[in-house]
Design brief:
The protein has 768 residues and is α+β, with helices and mostly antiparallel strands. Helices cover 33% and strands 20% of the residues. The protein contains 19 helices and 26 strands. An eight-stranded mixed beta sheet has the order 3-1-2-5-8-7-6-4. Helix 1 (72-79) crosses helix 3 and helix 6 runs parallel beside helix 10. The longest helix is centred in the middle third of the chain and has 30 residues, at 398-427. The relative contact order is 0.08. This is protein-serine/threonine phosphatase. Its EC number is 3.1.3.16. Its cofactor is Mn(2+); Mg(2+); Co(2+). InterPro entries: dsRBD_dom, Fcp1, FCP1_dom, HAD-like_sf, HAD_sf.
Length: 768
């Protein structure tokens, strides 16, 4: 039970400033017990202010679970931000004894009174009041079941983590998939002229053949010969999940030295035998998730594989059921039909967890619904046959990086929850407004991309998919034959050697140094100047890269200055992406510096509207994104802009908005058609909000264009507003800081002048 709080005893009667004038009297019940009459005040006027209670009565069905450390309003603001529908208070003084007892129970035990309306729950949250001496409540709306699932997770400081299986955690093959891959590589070797590539493919075939022979021996004799040692099967009991209740024993051989397991999906059918390779460092990640018996994450699996296969693969990964208990396994392992999009809302079935409290680990981003992609940590596909040493090429293995990302996400989420949201919720009173509610954290806010790319040593062509699809096992379980000429459906999209992917070691590609995940320095003026700025400011400049998994392969490079992202570049090669990222970073540095210096000191007296390319220097050659934001946004103009430029402009505008706002205030972008799951008439509609108040709206054929338009309008509103309700969220002018390195901001005039001269010198040297 939570420590009781003393509600203040004795803004104005009638719901406070945040509620619309004029209350409606309703009768309150707890089940069939009459609690008295209450006055209900909608939060908004007009059609949007309609009251949510049917039949003009408030009938409480039950109380929410007790929360040990989080008041109900903090939980509701996290899972359903700014969802306060109305306020209500007891009509009579003194109040009905039953209503008074209900109020004290909810207030002291961190419970809420729940009114169920269809698939919606209305939570009555007991609120302290500055002046009222009767029970007072805020009424918040949330999807049915999500509150009960979230209260325990937030009290335990626990988030959800969703794993993909194939090529993320494991690679599995049957005899058929082994033979298909060996045959495909043999055909490639027949037409290949490059002896280096031939050697690489030959080594890959040998690795396939070696494991195929082990699998064949397992199928024929239930044993394998590993380095001269005969290893027999162990019968492992499997709890039945679907079908009958018969006891199932599977023959399994575990080879820890090879990081491999042999199993049989259907113990009665030897052709369902599978050779499984586990990704290195899985034990480290699993140990973190279960360390010291403290649950840090609720674990889920979402895969496009066949269900029985997926359940067995997860059993091999979690044999003691420490991550997912046996009675939760059926609902925690979610299988998606091939070709469909994965979606967190479907994974949790609207009740297990709120998507904003979940992160995903997958080797492919595009298989996820677009609204969930910001919560996906993308890992390189596991390729043990093509590049067996690639996993250990980096100082930190891929799954250890994933562990570190999960740790950082959890720490950032609950730091925001504890230090900002909880603190402010405890200060709120019944008379406060909707705008006074604090920003709610989202896992996507803390999921920073880390460079987990590696460069295999072999110079082979791009690999074929290494693991079989779950559909293959499904067909075997159903007794379907496999013709020799049947094409194996790839479980992920791969590149051909025509794509010229430097990551695979193709000649002419970019060399990558594994020094903290940074890229090798390119002979670019922008990169040189950026690194010089970092050296003079004694700040670390990092380049981190990712590779898209779409058909048109693109490289994306982010620039981090003292661990803060200041630029991003997208190109067909890493060199191109790095140069673009460095250029954008310099633009953002200049924009932020000028926006900081111009209103405070008026240091630079330049014509910032001069078109790009009109000067030789760093300061003269770049257009301020801040000035662009002052132009009237045009939907047709946004459609014509390059996507990468729009992303960069959006980043710049958001940086300027953050500088105008207080540290604990955040502008939130809301998708106005998010419930439909798709764009409206081919267009996306976004609105920018600060504390629940709309600052700007944007419409575009692309989400980023719509966000950019909303952000520019919001920036214009913040700069020109006289509304005291908005200005209270803004910094006083004298407190504005340069966001990247405020302690060195007084040196930047000389620093930027130096970089300008350096660019001129370098350009003259190249020209000569």
């Amino acid at each position: 039970m939570a420590t009781p709080r003393a509600p203040p005893q004795a803004a104005v009667p009638g719901g406070g400033a945040g509620a619309a004038a004029g209350g409606v009297t309703m009768r309150m019940f707890h089940g069939d017990v009459f609690l008295g009459e209450a006055e209900v005040f909608p939060m908004k006027q007009g059609a949007e202010g309609s009251l949510p209670f049917p039949s003009n009565e408030i009938r409480i069905s039950h109380l929410s679970p007790t929360s040990e450390r989080c008041p109900p309003l903090a939980i509701l603001q996290t899972i359903a931000p700014f969802s306060v529908r109305c306020k209500l208070q007891a009509k009579l003084m003194p109040p009905h004894p039953s209503l008074h007892r209900l109020y004290l129970t909810c207030f002291n035990e961190y419970k809420s009174a729940v009114v169920v309306v269809g698939d919606e729950e209305l939570h009555l949250v007991a609120m302290p009041s500055k002046v009222e001496k009767v029970p007072c409540f805020w009424c918040c709306s949330v999807r049915s079941g999500i509150y009960a699932a979230s209260v325990g997770m937030l009290n335990l400081r626990c988030l959800a983590i969703v794993f993909d299986l194939d090529e993320t955690l494991i690679v599995a093959n049957t005899m058929k998939s082994f033979e298909d891959r060996i045959e495909m590589l043999s055909r490639r070797m027949d037409i290949e002229d490059d002896p280096v590539r031939i050697a690489g493919m030959s080594a890959e075939i040998k690795r396939y053949i070696e494991d195929r022979e082990l699998l064949k021996e397992f199928i024929d004799t239930d044993t394998v010969t590993d380095n001269g040692r005969i290893v027999g099967t162990q019968k492992e009991e499997v709890l039945p999940i679907s079908g009958g209740q018969e006891r199932v024993l599977r023959p399994v051989i575990r080879l820890p030295e090879r990081n491999a397991i042999l199993t049989r999906i259907n113990p009665e059918v030897r052709d369902t035998s599978v050779f499984v390779k586990l990704r290195p460092a899985w034990e480290d990640l699993r140990s973190y998730l279960t360390a010291k018996g403290r649950k840090r994450f609720e674990v889920y699996v979402c895969t496009m594989a066949e269900r029985d296969y997926a359940l067995e693969m997860w059993r091999l990964l979690d044999p003691e059921a420490n991550l997912i208990s046996s009675h939760n396994l059926a609902e925690r392992v979610v299988c998606v039909k091939s070709g469909s999009k994965k979606c967190l809302q479907n994974v949790f079935k609207d009740k297990g967890c709120h998507p904003k409290m979940a992160m995903v680990i997958d080797d492919r981003l595009q298989v996820w619904d677009e609204k969930d992609q910001l919560r996906v940590h993308v890992v390189p596909a596991y390729t043990p046959y093509y590049a067996p040493q690639a996993e250990m090429a980096n100082a930190v293995p891929v799954l250890c990086v994933a562990r570190n990302v999960a740790c950082n996400v959890r720490g950032g989420f609950f730091r925001e929850f504890d230090e900002n949201l909880l603190r402010k919720v405890f200060e709120l009173m019944y008379e406060n407004e909707l705008l006074d509610l604090p920003y709610a954290p989202d896992v996507g806010d803390y999921l920073v991309c880390e460079d987990t790319n590696f460069a295999p040593n072999n110079k082979d062509v791009a690999p074929i998919p290494e693991g079989m699809s779950g559909a293959e096992v499904g067909k075997r379980l159903n007794g379907l034959a496999y013709p020799r000429d049947q094409k194996q459906i790839p479980s992920s999209t791969r590149l051909s050697d025509d794509d010229g992917v430097a990551l695979r070691g193709i000649p002419g590609g970019t060399n990558i140094q594994s020094n903290g995940g940074s890229l090798a320095t390119t002979p670019s003026l922008f990169v040189t100047v950026l690194q010089e700025i970092g050296r003079l400011c004694e700040s670390r400049v990092e380049f981190r890269s990712t590779v898209s998994s779409g058909k048109n392969m693109q490289f994306s490079v982010e620039v981090l200055f003292s661990n803060e992202k200041i630029g991003i570049g997208i190109g067909k090669t890493r060199d191109e992406a790095q140069v673009l990222a460095a250029e954008k970073a310099l633009q953002n540095l200049e924009s932020n510096y000028l926006s900081f210096m111009a209103p405070v000191a008026g240091v630079l007296n330049k014509d910032v509207n001069k078109p790009p390319g009109s000067g030789n220097g760093f300061l003269e050659d770049i257009t301020l994104s801040e000035d662009i934001s002052m132009e009237e946004p045009s939907g047709s103009t946004l459609k014509e802009q390059d996507h990468s430029k729009a992303l960069d402009r959006l980043s710049s505008v958001i940086s300027l908005i953050r500088e105008l706002c207080l540290e604990d205030q955040h502008v939130v972008f809301r998708d106005q058609v998010r419930d439909s799951g798709s764009a409206l008439n081919g267009e996306y509609h976004f609105q920018a909000e600060l504390g629940g108040q709309i600052l700007g709206r944007g419409i575009g054929l692309n989400k980023d264009f719509a966000k950019l338009q909303a952000a520019e309008e919001a920036l214009k509103t913040l700069k020109t507003t006289t509304d005291p309700q908005i200005k209270k969220h803004l910094r006083p002018m004298q407190q504005l800081n340069f966001p990247l390195y405020p302690t060195q901001s007084h040196t930047l005039v000389g620093l930027l002048f130096f970089t300008q001269l350096k660019l001129i010198f370098l350009e003259d040297a190249i020209a000569s």
